[in-house]
Amino acid sequence: MSLRLTNSLSRQKEDFETVLPGHVGLYVCGPTVYGDPHLGHAKTYVSFDVIVRYLRFCGYTVTYIQNITDVGHLVGDEDDGADKVLQKAQEINRQPMAIVEHYTCRHFAMMDRLQVQRPDISPRATGHIPEQLQLIETLLAQGKAYERNGSIYFDVSQDSEYGILSGRKGEDMLGGTRVAVRNEKKDPRDFALWKHAEPDHLMRWRDCLGQEGFPGWHTECVAMSTRYLGNAFDIHGGGMDLKFPHHECELAQARALGHDYARYWLHANLLTINGQKMAKSLGNFITLEDAFQTNNPLVVRYFIVAGHYGSVLDFSDSALQGAETSLQRLQQTVRALQRKVPTDFSAPGQHLQQYRERFCEAMDDDFSTPQALAILFELIHEVHRLLQQENTATEVFADALNLFQQLAGDVLGLLPETESITHSPELLEQTINLLLELRHDFRQQKEFARADLIRQRLQELGIELQDSKDGTTWEIP
Amino acid sequence: MSLRLTNSLSRQKEDFETVLPGHVGLYVCGPTVYGDPHLGHAKTYVSFDVIVRYLRFCGYTVTYIQNITDVGHLVGDEDDGADKVLQKAQEINRQPMAIVEHYTCRHFAMMDRLQVQRPDISPRATGHIPEQLQLIETLLAQGKAYERNGSIYFDVSQDSEYGILSGRKGEDMLGGTRVAVRNEKKDPRDFALWKHAEPDHLMRWRDCLGQEGFPGWHTECVAMSTRYLGNAFDIHGGGMDLKFPHHECELAQARALGHDYARYWLHANLLTINGQKMAKSLGNFITLEDAFQTNNPLVVRYFIVAGHYGSVLDFSDSALQGAETSLQRLQQTVRALQRKVPTDFSAPGQHLQQYRERFCEAMDDDFSTPQALAILFELIHEVHRLLQQENTATEVFADALNLFQQLAGDVLGLLPETESITHSPELLEQTINLLLELRHDFRQQKEFARADLIRQRLQELGIELQDSKDGTTWEIP
């Protein structure tokens, strides 16, 4: 069986055939960097991270482009209203690009904690103004775009296929744009490729009309994806909320330009909170910083991977507890195997082959991570059976360990990556707790000198103990 | 006394007067992102980090811009030859922007480990092509630049002040550019603002001549600094090796454009290895990754802070050992104070005031960090005297702790920042070593059951012990 994936464009599962043999060009719409990353971002970027990891595991060379939207994304995804970055900059009285820098940094810091591998290139919209203007000039020259009051709009009426991706028709394709701006347009469905900059608009560039303006959000991604992946590439991904208008408008431009553009469109579905849409206005908005206060980032990752990328995922405390239990069982099994297999022992690879095959079958079926995890849990069950048998050969454990490192580690990203082991706060906690336990024993045995020695030595390391009738706690003040 | 700093332009210590009251605009030339960050980068960016931290400590609002050079920096800092990024991209067969992404990431990862605070904005040269082209058009229109074979050069002969920053004259101002390119120039001192792109040159943009090319390194920094700081700003910094030709050429353009440009030019001096220039060709090139294998990044930071930014700093194992000893003494003193002062105790601030004043006097004198550290060590000495006195009031310790947190922590960046404490690999190492010591004692006392329990419990945590006649070692396989 070979890889099949659900193409949003055809709404069907299709065989995956790349433009160039052995190579995958993947473009995923990145964050608009005006606020702290939240659980919805985690859902999208963990989903595509697993997809990239699996494609690489299958032997493809992947060029993964994930842009940074740092200009032109307007509030409400509309053609008027405030630029999200600029609005934030005005709110806290900083330069727009300082906002961009800060939240770009936050995005990657949180993604790093989720063990999301960095994209190969993270192009910024402001870094590709000339490419966008060239694209717009081409559309103007072809008569597929027109100018009104210094802004440039795409002429949807010439495009009979507009709506093909989102399946929207008629009134569904109209946003909430103000009437004044709608009146500028020939057709209310038309969308802005370039917006004229008002005198107080800080982010502005000279345009092909000899005036000053800033790019429309939908144009940016066409310019950046084709700049790095060519006019025909393999996969275009993003969150489900981007399907309309963003991706529909991208596709319309690509069609007008005569580009094949993306063969497959993949959409990571939304994350809900206890069944509700997550929104600041509903007060159930959870940033990753908040989530990581009480949850190990890998538990959040596990929780996301345990769902299918194309399904809505509902976040709740109980769901997260389930993820934590499962992740612990997975990681404990791996540690148990590590204790059985000497470091330099190489795995022969003949044993347990069926688990690898079934894992890949699951992933080949539209990246079905829930199914792939189910197979890993069968393997966990089998490993525990083997661990209880006295005569299991080390070769078998070595193969099992190898499988976990590849499938749970390399592909799903659920094992802590090597460097973090010695930095693991859990391990420090566990060794300190072991010392506390020894001290407790000494006190029980009335070996007070030894008990005091432990307290004193920990204190020298900056670790303070507090004894109470409920036991001893420690802190690093 | 108020802040005075050595202006490279006047070669004198000058009083620091800002363009806008209370605000400092600082531009520092960032890395060219084609290779792994090395000790020289640490020297430059730690130096400016301390300067930024001190200015903020003094109450200034600082806008710190540090660019990323991702195009146009040619091998040998010349006007011909390969683009450093492009050369690397061809070497390892990747897209130039993937090289840029990777090494930008590496730069910040290493700077984070050195506790170098992120700049407010890290503009990329490729993100400011329109600004550069506008600048070049202005110079062309004024007749201060000219075109030859699709490249655009700055006409040095019209600038009687050229050489004023570096103090270079005549032949000293000629680089090693090939004769063919020199012949393109009216004056061999002329430098490229824009280079015509050969057909195989991957990084290219449409230019004002209607052809395609890429920016000259010296133009990029003029465009980016004035874009974010205005045409008159406070400090322009960079490594000493950038004074000529880079900064001299920046200043010439700014002069031609009629910009006041930077009031003060600061140069962080070079880092040598055992008295020799650090160079790949000499085989003494030390990346930060290498340096951090054997040294805590904060020891490297201490080592840099212990020298003056404007002096050459010689790296050697013995110098680093000295830095380690001093840093440990500093951090131990802070931990001793933390044990004396309850967490919620607020420092009255009246005690030890003279140390703060003398520290600031030292820093006000051209950011004399060696002198500032000497004063902190006087304070360390005083604190240890106070720690031995039984009747020292907690207020005094609280003031001392507060001073260290502000001066050694906030300003010099030498105290581990809070989050890293529980992630500290050293602390984990120390607690494991404490357990090994206890186990050793048990074995000496023939309490083998207890000794074995420690081994077993550590093994459960994934920590393996190896006993030999030289003692016990541990590893996390």
What does this structure look like?
The structure is a homodimer of 477-residue chains. In chain A, α11 packs antiparallel against α12 (369-388) and α15 (425-444) runs antiparallel to α16 (448-460). The first copy, chain A, has helices at residues 39-57, 84-91, 96-113, 129-141, 179-184, 217-229, 243-257, 288-294, 297-305, 317-340, 353-364, 369-388, 394-411, 418-423, 425-444, 448-460; strands at residues 4-7, 12-15, 23-28, 61-66, 145-148, 151-154, 191-196, 205-206, 212-215, 232-239, 261-268, 271-273, 276-277, 313-315, 464-468, 471-475. The first copy, chain A, starts with a strand and ends with a strand. Chain A is built from 16 helices and 16 strands. Chain A folds into three domains: 4-268, Rossmann fold, CATH 3.40.50; 315-419, Anticodon-binding domain of a subclass of class I aminoacyl-tRNA synthetases (Four Helix Bundle (Hemerythrin (Met), subunit A), Up-down Bundle), CATH 1.20.120; 424-475, no CATH class. The mean pLDDT of chain A is 93. In chain A, β5 and β6 (151-154) form a beta hairpin. Chain A is an alpha/beta fold. Chains A and B meet through α3, α4, β8, α10 and α14 of A and α3, α4, β8, α10 and α14 of B.
Low-confidence stretches of chain A: none
CATH class of the largest domain in chain A: Alpha Beta
Under CATH, the homologous superfamily of the largest domain in chain A reads: HUPs
What percentage of residues of chain A falls in helices of 4 or more residues? 40-55%
Most extensive chain contact? Answer: A-B, 51 and 51 residues
Number of domains of chain A: 3
Q: Which class of secondary structure composition applies to the elements of chain A?
A: alpha/beta
Got a strand count of chain A? 16
For the termini of chain A, the CA-CA separation is: 57 Å
